Description:
By secondary structure, the protein is an all-alpha fold.
Amino acid sequence: MIAALFAAGILLIVLGTGADLVLGVTTNIYSDFLSAHKGFLGVIPPVKLLRICAMVVLLPASMLVFTGLDSTILKWSYMSMGLRGSAVFVGLFILVFLKKYAHSTFILALLYLIPVIYLLLQIL
């Protein structure tokens, strides 16, 4: 009985982590790329566009889970947290402590490159 409760708890943690990853990626893609386009994406209602984006993100994510690829959901979760942290921490640090550099083109380019660099370091 107690083992079943722990197993259910672990299942909820894994499902919550997976849902967090999918919703986080979906929100980032929609907010950064899809909501700005007024072309053919403008005729699709925003809720429907979010659902389509979530399905597009969920399909490759589920393929990764089912094929294994010698990884676990926890590793993906840590990488996701690292990507978010690398993108948010540096930007907030610059805005709080180095306000005179906040509008620098170099700093803006660096803010876009830091998550890419973090991802490359995780892959290598």
